[in-house]
Amino acid sequence: PLYYLTYTGNFATPLMGTWTPQSPPSNIGQPLILYDQTLLTLIFSPLDHFTLATQTTNTGLEECCFTPMAFGFSGVFGDIPPLTNYSTVLYYGYGINETTFDWGSFMLSRFNKSRTKSDLSVALENLGYTTEN
Questions:
Q1: Residue 43 contacts by C-beta under 8 Å, 6 or more apart in sequence?
Q2: Which among 41, 8, 49, 10 is positioned nearest to 26, based on CA atoms?
Q3: What's the pLDDT tens digit per position in 39-66?
Q4: Are 71 and 48 in contact (CB under 8 A)?
Q5: How far is it, in rounded angstroms, from Cα 63 to Cα 88?
Q6: pLDDT digits (tens, 9 = 90+) for 24-41
């Protein structure tokens, strides 16, 4: 079987389950993490336009063993400016935690950011919360 982990809603609520062609999740958040029993892990996420991006399944086009996915802008737009690009990342590795950490490192480097150290302040060290914005 194939399993998924994603985060949805305003507070990034985790959503987990088993991914099947007949019953993929209807509300895919960002990032979408797919993994199997060997912990081969795939991560799909937008590379830009994070607040406008959407990832969804198209349950009307199922084939024998997969469900088509769509990536792009969500909502209704009057016009998207010419030459606007939208990019999606597919990152893979072994191990959910390691692959997710490596994907995060890739995203940070893409935007010339560095990972926040949790011991920079008493609050971060003791509360253990950072958004890495």
A1: 31, 32, 33, 34, 89, 90, 91, 92, 99, 100, 103
A2: 8
A3: 999 999 989 888 777 777 765 555 555 6
A4: no
A5: 23
A6: 666 677 888 999 999 999
Q: Which ranges of 80-132 would DSSP assign to H, the alpha helix?
A: 96-110, 122-127
Distance set, CA 65 to CA 28, 35, 44, 68, 127 (Å): 19, 16, 19, 10, 44
Say what percent of the chain tops pLDDT 90: 28
Tokens matching residue 48: 């830009």
Burial class (CB in 10 A: 0-12, 13-18, 19+), 6: buried
Assessment of whether the complete model's pTM goes beyond 0.85: no
Give phi and psi for 60, each to the nearest 5. Answer: -85, -5
Q: Which of 22-26, 63-67, 75-79 has the highest mean pLDDT?
A: 75-79
Contacts of 29 (CB under 8 A, 6+ apart): 6, 7, 8, 9, 12, 15, 55
